[in-house]
Amino acid sequence: SETSMRTVRVLRELKPEFTLEDACSGDTVYFKNKTQLKSGDQVSWFWDFADGTTHQDFERNHAFNTAQSRTLNVALRATLNGACESQLVQPINIWEKPRTCEFISTPAYDVAYYALKFEPASDGVAGGQDNVTYTWNLKWFQEQTSQGTSAAVVYSLPEDGAYDMRMIATTDDHGCTCESRAIATLDRLSDASLSAAVSVYPNPSTGRFTINNTSSDALQIQVFNAQGQWVWQSNTEFASKEIDLSHLSAGTYLMHIRSQSGKLHVEKLSILSH
User: Fold this and answer.
1) How far is 123 from 135, CA to CA, in rounded Å?
2) Which residue, among 110, 98, 112, 101, has the nearest Cα to 224 in the 3D structure?
3) Contacts of 88 (CB under 8 A, 6+ apart)
């Protein structure tokens, strides 16, 4: 019989290890590489963050952006001395931020002679979001908080002027935040000139109203229910206009009539049963 001998070299395989923490969309996550190495190891690294992004660093900071909460499987692949390849995959939860990261301000003359109402908004449409808390910081005034879809707040003010508002929206489940800051202007004297030029009649009615405009400004008309939710809007009009709101339930509504020059008149409408 013949005997054959061959030398076989058994290569060592690394065991990749890394740490991570769940995060909010847009926040930076630190991926710490904790793989145990020996002196002289030549290692090639490959990170796959499961969002179309890859890197070849030893460890990495990375920010994920997502419109909806989701779980991603992040992989770290190690190749030792150009030969043995091994990989570790770990899940990470990326939580969505609030979608209502803007706000809209409007005069609230039905509350006080000088008053501003602030409402969360998304893409210019007013209305809060379920499971979100809003913190309102009007400079020089007391902080207010509100929650959910009916999250408007009102500040009574001493006079006309420009007011600095900062709103922070925070998700109730994971504490993800976004914020917005803007200057809100109250000018009741200017708004009064529009109020003198615009009339709405008959009021109350079963839903049909006539808006008479004697100003030279074009008007945009929005109607909100008692919960502050937008329910109807017209195109910009110069002339007087008849509107039909008979499809709305009986109750009290607020009509915001805004001129092209930025003046605002607020009319309280009463729709009768029909």
Assistant:
1) 19
2) 110
3) 15, 16, 17, 18, 75, 76
